[in-house]
Amino acid sequence: MKIRAAVLHEMGKPRPYAASQPLAIEELELEGPGPGEVLVRVEAAGLCHSDLSVINGDRPRPLPMALGHEAAGVVEATGPNVADLAPGDHVVMVFVPSCGRCPRCMEGRPALCEPGSAANAAGSLISGARRLRLRGREVHHHVGVSAFADHAVVSRNSLVRVEPSLPFDQAALFGCAVLTGVGAVVNTARVPAGATVAVVGLGGVGLNALLACRLVGATAIVAVDLQDDKLALARQLGATHTVNAGEPDCVEQVRAATGGGVDVAFEMAGSVRAMDVAYRITRRGGRTVSAGLSHPDHDFSLKHVTLVAEERTIQGSYIGSCVPARDVPRFVALYQGGQLPVDRLLGERIGLAALNAAFDRLASGQTVRQILIPSAG
Known about the structure:
By secondary structure, the protein is α/β, with parallel strands linked by helices. About 30% of the residues lie in helices and about 25% in strands.
């Protein structure tokens, strides 16, 4: 079938993207689903910093590539060996397919699935197939999803069924921002009630982490960002303290407000500078958790003695250490019960033609979560 999709042909084009147009809206040929695969009509897709990191070259990927990885839609057809989904089912797409058989999957850590990671790096589905063509040339899949399109073929292992009562624009958030942000708090860090926490970087993932810190009963929640409007939103969402990261005494302000530093600091900006701030505002014996993805060539350094003498812990968190089939439904239930108001993070709704300009807004930090509605044109 023919579909419309946003394709990246060249990384690192200059901003503004509205002028350089890194994403081309192309008519692609989409093959039908193979064994273990599903054809999904994409109804909504979130614009995430992970997409921007491919566009600007921070996360090198094989090209050409159809972008988009945080999405929700409707099953239109299933391939052989898919027995538990049917046309009409509503699904959330997850950007790491899990094989269920590798050592990481068998120890209950599907976010670290080895075949899934290898397929994502190669730009293929977990089967090794590529179902997209542009004038006869293969187009790579973005982390097994490629959701900036009106349709996508994905692995069954990239999908979680959700109830039709959940609006698509809200459902899309659960494929990345909610899993990563909320999961980092409840799964990776397991923040206990009464803890003091800080979130450095208030994009979609960081604000979801902030919501989760409030959910679990943190007593002090410090929000740190360069954008004053995001700090204002963080206060509305439950932050007890806000600090602008651009202030020269940012670290001192946080440590003074929390009696020497926080129990857990979350780095959610994907930068070494943010990680440095997060580590420095963590108290003795505390934990610094990073879910931000910086450029692969960037290194983080620290004073080794503080790690030992202060019994610090540094921990990574990928997809919030989630088991998507378990965590998407339970996070949705928390949202629908009014305990996790992720809908307050939704921003503009756009069509495919507006994607490049929308990534300008994302790159400048002017927005939290813009939502692509492919049917809007």
